[in-house]
Design brief:
The protein is mainly beta. The protein has a single domain, classed as Immunoglobulin-like, CATH 2.60.40. The chain is about 0% helix and about 50% strand. It is built from no helices and 16 strands. A five-stranded mixed sheet has the order 4-14-13-9-11, with no helix packed on it. It has a five-stranded antiparallel sheet with strand order 7-6-5-12-10, with no helix packed on it. A two-stranded antiparallel ribbon has the order 1-2. The radius of gyration is 19 Å and the shape is elongated.
Length: about 180
């Protein structure tokens, strides 16, 4: 066992394999984009999975063809943090500005069902080594979710009980695809 120089009370076993390569893509000027425009609930976001893959939500989830960790390496040795650079705060997923272990899937998304509105933001995603606290990769990811109206989204609220008025043929009581 080796002593963690950042925290001498925390011990860890040094990996026998060379560490994997941690990579993220997107720049602040040209972030990766997850977008969804629909009449009704628009869902868009990003998910960084414990199996090392990155997924994009544009209604439904699909593989973004990017692995955040290539090669040898244990996902438990890494943490992720999302920091909002601009726009609205995602309303689904993990907290912002908090380092979270990557042995579980981590996601940040919008679920927007307010007719005629848009929710969007740019997130700075960082992945660091959990043992040394060294940031290994940084990327930028944009989320854009627009409810174009007319599809059953919320049109407003009335009274103090939070009752909603809806349009369209269905009333949503939860988030559905």
């Amino acid at each position: 066992m080796a002593v963690n120089l950042i925290n001498p009370y925390r011990y860890y076993v040094a990996p026998s394999e060379s560490p994997g390569t941690v990579t993220l893509s997107g720049t602040l000027g040209s972030p990766n984009l997850a977008t969804r425009t629909v009449a009704g609930t628009a869902r868009a976001g990003w998910r960084f999975e414990a199996d090392k893959e990155v997924f994009r939500r544009q209604g439904s989830w699909s593989n973004f063809n990017e692995d955040w960790l290539d090669g040898a390496g244990d996902v438990a040795d890494y943490e992720i943090r999302a920091t909002k650079q601009s726009g609205d705060t995602p309303n689904v997923g993990q907290a912002l500005n908090t380092w979270l272990g990557l042995s579980s899937d981590r996601n940040w998304e919008f679920s927007n069902n307010v007719n005629g509105t848009t929710k969007e933001c740019v997130l700075k995603i960082e992945i660091r080594d959990a043992n040394t606290l060294t940031v290994r990769a940084t990327g930028y990811y944009k989320i854009y979710a627009e409810d174009s109206g007319g599809g059953g989204g919320t049109t407003g609220t009335t009274g103090t009980t939070g009752t909603t008025t809806t349009t369209g043929s269905t009333t949503e009581t939860g988030v559905t695809e």
